[in-house]
Specification:
247 residues; Rossmann fold; 8-stranded mixed beta sheet; 11 helices
């Protein structure tokens, strides 16, 4: 499968390595140019490209960028084939992304993205920490394999996204429609809590839309207070904190 990835941060880079390792033809772009793409991504088999060509002739386009930059992607997908699936990995944090009135007024973030792009998307890989995603992929059937929720409105989009999640070493769980994808966003019990396939359906079902933003903000305040330099935060701390606050 031909896959383009927009964004080469922690999640985008791991996706590039894992999907290249699974045998896919992967190209990756960021906002700074192909010469800035990490050498380990290239060594894994992914091809650095200019952002203007990342969506050309691909079957899947994965967006892994700050939500505030999502409207810029629309110019990149003008030539995206009609059959291609867009999979988004982003999350909405007001303090990082600035004010987005529609989201502040309760619009589901994934639905807002479809409006910005003018195309359907699937939501996947947003509910796992970068550390867990890089380190904890396991073989199919492993009882401790972490599950990742996947939401989409079209069956084809969801099927493709779930298959790719499985190939990255995690169990894909059908999380319903994009309108329900708030259940896998920050503040919800399924968000970055490293649950298994058996436990994540209950976590999705028990999410509280009214309380999730408040829980998200409490978690972010706790992280900022303990780790003034966010790069120092550990995966174990994040997972334990989220399990304590979001459950």
């Amino acid at each position: 499968m031909k896959i383009g990835i927009v964004g080469a941060g922690s999640i985008g880079a791991t996706l590039a390595r894992k999907l290249s390792g699974a045998g896919h033809d992967v190209k990756v772009a960021n906002s700074r140019g192909p010469e800035t793409i990490s050498s380990d991504i290239v060594a894994a088999g992914a091809k650095p490209v200019e952002a203007s060509s990342v969506a050309t002739d691909v079957d899947v386009l994965i967006t892994s960028i700050p939500l505030s930059r999502m409207p810029e992607v629309k110019t990149l997908i003008e030539d995206l084939p009609a059959h291609a699936v867009i999979v988004d990995t982003s999350n909405y944090y007001p303090v990082r992304d600035g004010r987005v009135d529609a989201l502040e007024n309760g619009m589901v973030e994934s639905v807002w993205i479809t409006q910005q792009l003018g195309r359907p998307v699937a939501k996947a890989w947003n509910a796992i920490t970068a550390g867990s995603f890089e380190a904890y992929g396991r073989d199919d059937g492993d009882p401790d394999r972490i599950a990742i929720p996947v939401a989409a409105d079209r069956d084809h989009d969801k099927t493709v996204a779930m298959a790719l999640v499985e190939e990255t070493g995690f169990d894909a769980v059908d999380a319903g429609s994009l309108a329900e994808s708030w259940r896998q966003q920050p503040g919800s019990p399924s968000y970055c809590t490293d649950l298994t396939r058996q436990k994540i359906p209950h976590a999705l079902a028990s999410a509280d839309k009214a309380r999730s933003p408040h829980r998200r903000d409490i978690a972010l305040a706790a992280i900022t207070e303990r780790f003034p330099n966010y790069s120092d935060v550990t995966t174990d701390y994040l997972v334990r904190l989220h399990r304590a606050l979001y459950s």
